[in-house]
Amino acid sequence: MELPCDRQGQPLDPEAARTLLEPLDARSRLSWAAETFGEGLALTTSFGIQSAVLLHMVSELGEVAPGRRVPVIWVDTGYLPAETYRYAEQLSALLCLDLRVVQATISPARMEALHGRLWESGTLEDLQLYNRLRKVEPLDQALIDLQVRCWASGVRGRQTDHRRGMSPLDPVRGIWSLRPLLAWTSRDVFYYMQEHGLPQHPLFDQGYSTVGDWHSSAPDDGDISGRATRFGGIKQECGIHLPGLMGEGI
Length: 250
Description:
Layout: H1 14-21, H2 26-37, E1 41-45, H3 52-59, E2 63-65, E3 68-69, E4 71-75, H4 82-95, E5 98-102, H5 108-115, H6 124-145, E6 150-152, H7 161-164, E7 169-172, E8 175-178, H8 186-195
Parallel strand pairs: 1-4, 1-6, 4-5, 6-8
Antiparallel strand pairs: 2-3, 7-8
């Protein structure tokens, strides 16, 4: 699949870009993407435990094109905790985000009527279907609609086995995926938020180190922590950061 060009219409040399990005800090990686892709740059967020860092950085980028800031895409599955919805309102107002909320074309009620409560079966196949319907397909459609060439996310290499193998810039489902925080630790995130006075997600104080949908998230319990608390321990990734053709989901 042919990957998107830069803002000048020139193909990107992935190896040269990775060599350039590897030694850069997170802010510099974002600045590079803004300069390289212009209005073709977008950010995705879950408004999760550690989302405030990258949202704060992108809020300080300024305009990437005349009159246009970096759009922030939030996939609202319809099953997020109440705390996450309130946190999203708080951060959006605090950071003046250009927030684009996207949702599945199939409502939660219709999905449950046709397929059942997919997260309750305990099967990998049902979780994959759930994530494709509620997360991957809505995001892919938003990326197409916004004509995104490169999307930045807050993934970190220590979060899952799959993410350990990521580089700062990789193709994902037909577009470029930038990872400004790839080498960051949880300690880095915590101190950045303290330094910049960013509010914590309300569930952080309840022991959550990561949070997604209410039915597939749990606090750390001493034996299990991080992404291992998600999806009942059946899987670590929801599919958004996995490769494949645009629209094919997971």
